[in-house]
Amino acid sequence: MNAGLNPMASIEAASPKDAMRRVFDVQRAAFAADMAPSYAMRLDRLDRLFAMTERIAPALESAASADFGHRPVQVTRLADVMMVLSAIKHARRHLKSWMKVHRAPTAMAFWPGANRIVAQPLGVVGVVSPWNYPYQLAMGPAIAALAAGNRVMIKPSELTPRTSELMRQAVAETFAPDEMTVVTGDADIGSAFVAMPFDHLLFTGSTAVGRHVALAAAANLTPVTLELGGKSPALLSPDVDMTYAAARLVMGKLFNAGQTCIAPDYVAVHRPAIDAFVDAMRLAVPLQYPTIAGNADYTGIVSERHFTRLQALVDDALLRGARVVPLHPEGLVAHADTRTFPPMLILGATDDMRVMQEEIFGPLLPVLAYDALDDAIGYVNRHERPLALYWFGADKADRDKVLARTISGGVTVNDCMWHFGQEDLPFGGVGASGMGAYHGEYGFRTFSMNKPVFFQSPLSGTRLLFPPYGKTFERMTRLLKIIT
Fold first, then answer.
1. Model pTM?
2. Catalytic annotation, pick one of 61, 227, 423, 441
């Protein structure tokens, strides 16, 4: 830990916004003093983050459960703790390779000169993380930023205050303020945070808020990575194994009670198979959740506002002619006291319904019927590009058609969400679902200036292109036309 700078005395006496800006200034000064952190220093920071994560894991499980009203410890352990530990292991294993100067091809005309790409830290990276996976979506980007040699400031969501405060305390105990800091506060603090002149800013959250973040960052010409949401579809091929697909859709949709940015947001089913799909889903849900009310494996909705929003989505769909089908024998009763919302299908969903206009972030699954797979593909393409897309089926031609003719942030074939867990794949959105990507080396590159460097040779023939221009220049340009 770098203890050479100790700005805490002046920072603690300042207002929250002033304190935040002073931390930023301290981090920027620290980076200016060490613009190329060694492999050993980066590894040390990753090691400390790993040890911190293991140490606070039980407290994270308790804090997240309290923030959600109830959240299974297994959800936090898998999605927040284990994914962070796995990402750190991956970064430690590959960091030396990522940091190497990489060769790049050199056109024959410039031989014997040579091209290289040098990964250089950017400086101070800002991370704005959401509430649904409050630890993983804060520390995942931080892992990449630290590996790349940057200083990091994190602004977590105010909707999970216990988890955010736990992160703030743990990071303060583990890292010097000039290395990594967590800033807590309300939306006003968040607005001030994204307005600071970071060297890169990563935001995870809704598309609507992402637009405001991009505008605030633009004032400083701060490059942004936006991990947004949207209506992620699941397309079921006519030849789909319905029992197989239903089990995986239930897992993907009801994990964290649907409060996942890449959860399937609607499903498109071949029209003759609609009844079979409904039956398969109604059988699959009780197998994974024998009960809903009081079930320790079922997550509560994060806030009263979001609970009320989900009920309003259902009411609006019913008003506009949808049929709501309970997916569990307990029925459609939502429990406001525990913020437990039951899973349900929305049949006959149409574009004028709010449930098809907004990202759901809950255990509601609209069902669209299609007559030909091209119709389902056309529906996806007429709407904003989703963060994720899921395809279920056995026909490789159908699969390849869907992959080739739809654009989305990422895809899992014959399952849900698992592309997110691949550290060797980039994770990011496209269009309204985001811009930029991270995870593994892709995150390292996102938070680096991949500087192109050309090394000229004393034997270079480019001197033959110097003025005064004449016959030598003409001969050289004729030669260049041939070899380039």
1. 0.94
2. 227
